């Protein structure tokens, strides 16, 4: 049985297995190294928050880049929970699933929160097509958008006062952009239901449509969610692409007031069709927008973080083994232009001083881990150094020497890592709590 496989890899069988978290506000602590969970636990305990935690969380993409697997991710988290004598409920997020094999591997390891990512089937250029192009392309996806005529001419008035008008061009664009993606998401959700039902285990599903260049419109959100729910998807949360910029490793870039107004509209859709939670991906360090997210959703939110725990691991190296940190900064710069390909980031190497140009260890830490301001295209940006380090995590962790050296640094200074994470995530949880 799956449960027995989990317990064999843990310190104690008294730790509750991962479970559904439902509509409770929740927070995902990604751990790319396998040593961060003690700090995550400390953050939750110190904050006194009622926000439900997900400790075992990693995407298939991250596992590939770090040479880990679902069993290892689950085992590392459960071992830490056993060591901390954790007795409360917690979830386990199999993130950014794209194939049935992804589902099978994570289900066997005991994950209960399955994040479907149909981004490979989204037409990223749809927002730029002319009406004539949309009509031509629609003929190619018509079979994947059987819902098209059901929405034609329809309008929906949300509780916020916003009105969604499903005119023909809006529907054509939604069908071309998301028609195939919706179909594929439903197919994968059906596979998740089959696998988990056969194993006798509960599950919940999050749908990710956030990895697009343009924000998700209200009409797109409505169609995606309604079609998935009508197909029987056990949808607990949905991650739209919100307005503004949600880049890796930095705070929210944009007008928080405008964002909050938009969040209220998206939350109104989630309430009307579900209810289900709104999910914030790339949620690391987006502290300025957390209160708005919590307020707009009335506590029905999920926040997903991952890279920030890796960056805080590098802070341990910066403090305890500064020469190692300097090497990691150098190597991350070498890898950045290659590794950034799958991320939306603004950092450019020429705007961030090279380690050789920074004489002191404190300067190096300030530039690469703090809010060092750089300029690109005449605009000021902060924390560009963090993005360079963030994107190269896989290259560093799988490097023959740097990866083991970083792990050795963290295992030699476990209390430092735990304390740094507890303080860092304490700020995250406190900001979310402000809006509850």
Automatic annotation (TrEMBL):
Q: What is its EC number?
A: 5.1.2.7
Name the reaction it catalyses: keto-D-tagaturonate = keto-D-fructuronate
Under the heading InterPro entries, the entry gives:
UxaE (IPR032586)
What's one Pfam family here?
A: UxaE
- Active-site residue numbers: 95, 206
Q: Which residues bind a divalent metal cation?
A: 96, 248, 281
Residue ranges crossing the lipid bilayer per the database entry: none
**Which cofactor does this sequence's record say it needs?**
a divalent metal cation
Q: Which UniProt keywords apply?
A: Isomerase, Metal-binding
Q: Name one GO molecular function term.
A: metal ion binding
Q: Which purpose does this protein serve, as stated in its record?
A: Catalyzes the epimerization of D-tagaturonate (D-TagA) to D-fructuronate (D-FruA).
What is stated as this protein's family in its record? Belongs to the UxaE family.
Task: Give the HAMAP family listed for this entry.
Answer: UxaE
Q: What is this protein called?
A: Tagaturonate/fructuronate epimerase
Q: What is the lineage of its organism?
A: Bacteria, Pseudomonadati, Planctomycetota, Planctomycetia, Pirellulales
């Amino acid at each position: 049985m799956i449960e027995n496989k989990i317990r064999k890899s843990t310190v104690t069988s008294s730790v509750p297995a991962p479970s559904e978290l439902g509509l409770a506000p929740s927070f995902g602590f990604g751990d790319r190294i396998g040593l961060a969970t003690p700090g995550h636990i400390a953050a939750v305990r110190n904050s006194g928050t009622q926000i439900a935690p997900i400790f075992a969380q990693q995407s298939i993409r991250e596992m590939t880049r770090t040479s880990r697997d679902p069993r290892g991710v689950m085992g590392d988290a459960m071992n830490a929970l056993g060591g901390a004598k954790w007795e409360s409920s917690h979830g386990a997020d199999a993130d950014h699933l794209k194939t049935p094999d992804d589902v099978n591997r994570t289900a066997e390891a005991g994950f209960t929160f399955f994040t479907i990512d149909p981004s490979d089937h989204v037409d990223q250029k749809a927002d730029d097509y002319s009406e004539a192009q949309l009509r031509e392309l629609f003929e190619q996806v018509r079979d994947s958008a059987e819902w098209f005529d059901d929405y034609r001419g329809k309008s929906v008035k949300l509780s916020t006062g916003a009105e969604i008008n499903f005119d023909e061009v809006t529907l054509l664009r939604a069908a071309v952009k998301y028609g195939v993606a919706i179909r594929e998401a439903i197919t994968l959700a059906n596979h998740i239901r089959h696998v988990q039902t056969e194993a006798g285990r509960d599950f919940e599903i999050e749908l990710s449509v956030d990895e697009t260049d343009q924000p998700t419109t209200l009409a797109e959100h409505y169609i995606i969610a309604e079609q998935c729910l009508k197909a029987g998807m056990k949808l607990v949360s949905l991650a739209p692409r919100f307005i503004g910029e949600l880049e890796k490793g930095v705070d929210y870039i944009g007008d928080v007031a405008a964002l909050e107004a938009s969040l209220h509209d998206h939350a109104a859709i989630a309430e009307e069709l579900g209810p289900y939670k709104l999910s914030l991906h790339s949620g690391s360090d987006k502290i300025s927008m957390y209160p708005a997210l919590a307020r707009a959703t009335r506590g029905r939110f999920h926040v997903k973080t991952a890279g920030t725990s890796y960056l805080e691991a590098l802070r341990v190296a910066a403090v305890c083994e500064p020469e190692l940190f300097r090497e990691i900064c150098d190597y991350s710069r070498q890898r950045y232009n290659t590794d950034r390909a799958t991320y939306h980031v603004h950092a450019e190497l020429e705007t961030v001083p090279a380690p050789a140009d920074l004489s002191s260890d404190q300067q190096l830490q300030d530039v690469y881990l703090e809010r060092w301001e750089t300029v690109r295209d005449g605009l000021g940006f902060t924390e560009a150094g963090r993005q360079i380090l963030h994107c190269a995590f896989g290259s560093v962790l799988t490097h023959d020497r740097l990866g083991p050296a970083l792990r050795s640094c963290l295992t030699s200074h476990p209390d430092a890592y735990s304390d740094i994470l507890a303080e860092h995530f304490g700020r995250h949880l406190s900001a979310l709590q402000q809006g509850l």
